[in-house]
Design brief:
The structure is a homodimer. Chain A is an alpha/beta fold. Chain A has helices at about 20-30, 45-50, 60-65, 80-90, 105-110, 160-170, 180-210, 215-220, 225-230, 235-245, 245-270, 275-280, 285-290, 305-310, and strands at about 10-15, 35-40, 55-60, 70-75, 95-100, 120, 125, 150, 175-180. In chain A, the strands form 2 sheets. A 6-stranded parallel beta sheet of chain A has the order 3-2-1-4-5-6. The longest helix of chain A has 28 residues, at about 180-210. Chains A and B meet through helix 7, helix 8, helix 9, helix 10 and helix 11 of A and helix 7, helix 8, helix 9, helix 10 and helix 11 of B.
Chain lengths: ~300, ~300
């Protein structure tokens, strides 16, 4: 769909961090919304959002933001969604569409949907995009360009509402896919949640060592470790909520990961070079396909600037 | 030391892959060696090295390359070092300095040192630099600039030889550090070897799933998974040899990693949000220090080009 097929009168963003502020910027850049407003709990966040000029109004209370809004997007950590949905319910306009950007979907549908009043639509969504930075200043308009956005309609979701949300994300540059919430949570457990968990974990393990100093970990991090510190620098509250709300799928995938790691550990202990070589040989093809699918740069080392170029 | 304090008459690189060819380019760029030659087993590799103009001569047999060389660098997988050292020993010139670039050091010293004849020096070394690419065409002269190179002299290493090697790597742009071989292996186990192992492992786990298709893993990899595919695309032979030759330290660090992961798994199962939040909050500081130490770019997402900019 072309980006001109959708026009929002008033877009209300509940939460204006990395994702919320990127939506605000992208919506403005593509002329998708006439008015863009946000709600944020802290005065400082509202001040920054207004100073950046990415919203027309910033409110303390979500209820004030959703008044008159035809599109409401929850952009806070998923653990807050139930309470926010309950709070905004009486203030939602007839005909409004409510959605979210949470990284888990089954628990989110269950938390939000019961609070949605008659005459208001709800369709859950998840833009698969982000960086390790947080806060309104970290957002940028191109964050969603060429990235997938997964919509997970429930049985109650009307087709017209799903199409409208599809058109919104398409206008922001995303490729839109529709998926069952439960399947979404399984896919994201392996492509995002478990990778974050093991990145957080190895950074923690390194931090706890007695035989190796922190200064040594930092100096020699270019051997591989530093890659993991990027996603381990992601927002702690957001990720706590992801793991608490996608428990089943994460534990399932983590179990498989640990089983496979134990097999590698055994191959190392017993000096089984063939098993190691075989395992290490099958993983290049996947990266090639990710690059071919436009989801990764083909540049060596992520095209990362060397220290000399950096400063 | 300034780069003019060292001048090599003939530099012999045994193996001309990513590291060997980067040394050739850097040595030429900084005017460190009068003549640069290499040995490579396959005809195709020798042809590419000559066509790229990074070596003056390319030989099939290491013996021919080391003749007349005052600096010999082993740049093949560490599992080959013992046999190569034995093979080149009779052809080494008096006064020559032999070194290597292997990612493990204790096993390397044990494999090479016994073969070094009287009147020839040996000092083990490890430039902590690389990319996920392999082969002579993947090298570049700036690979070592601003990166650490760790020298691990043994009891037999003469100070003059260590100083000479220090001057060589300094001339190539590296910061040089000296370390005990055993301690090196412990430091690299956590900063490089275990990160590679868990990256290979999660890519393998994802590849084996039945409930999630490979196409889904690829499409939604921007959620974190794709970061791991970079180091899991590294050379399988090199990495097989690393794990076979640093067994003890890798198993020690892997044991700690698994213990810590089990604690996180338990926190998820029991819904212990405070434990998760606490763990996820302590990891940002390390990334900040790595960036401050000039070992990482401060750009969000590694400064990675978005798909749009990429094509």
């Amino acid at each position: 769909m072309s980006e001109n097929t959708i026009k929002i009168e008033r877009l209300a963003l509940i939460g204006i961090g990395l994702i919320g502020s990127s939506i605000a910027r992208a919506a403005r850049q593509h002329g998708v919304a006439k008015e863009i407003v946000c709600a944020a709990r802290t005065h400082d966040t509202r001040r920054v959002a207004l100073e950046l000029g990415i919203v027309d109004h910033a409110y303390e209370h979500p209820c004030d933001a959703v008044k008159g809004a035809d599109l409401v997007i929850l952009c806070t950590p998923v653990g807050t969604y139930g309470a926010i949905a309950e709070e905004i319910a009486p203030a939602l306009e007839k005909g409004a569409l409510v959605t979210d950007v949470g990284s888990v979907k089954q628990a989110v549908v269950e938390a939000i949907e019961p609070h949605i009043p008659d005459g208001v639509d709800f369709v859950a969504g998840h833009p698969v995009a982000g960086t390790e930075k947080s806060g309104p200043a970290a957002g940028f308009a191109e964050l969603f360009a060429g990235r997938w956005c997964i919509l997970t309609p429930s049985e109650k979701s009307r087709d017209e509402a799903v199409d409208k949300l599809d058109a919104f994300w398409t206008a922001l540059g995303s490729d839109v896919e529709r998926m069952d919430p439960k399947h979404h949570d399984l896919v994201l457990a392996i492509t995002s949640h478990v990778p974050h968990l093991i990145a957080y974990n190895i950074v923690g393990t390194a931090d706890d060592l007695e035989e190796v100093t922190q200064s040594e970990v930092i100096k020699y991090s270019a051997g591989g470790f530093r890659d993991f510190t990027r996603i381990a620098a992601s927002d702690p509250t957001m990720w706590r909520d992801v793991f608490l709300h996608n428990k089943e799928a994460v534990l399932e995938m983590l179990g498989r990961f640990s089983e496979d790691l134990t097999a590698l550990q055994r191959a190392i202990r017993w000096g089984d070079g063939d098993a190691l070589f075989q395992m290490f040989s099958r993983t290049r093809a996947i990266r090639r396909q990710i690059i071919d699918a436009g989801q990764e740069t083909a540049e060596p080392d992520f095209g990362r600037a060397s220290p000399g170029e950096d400063e």
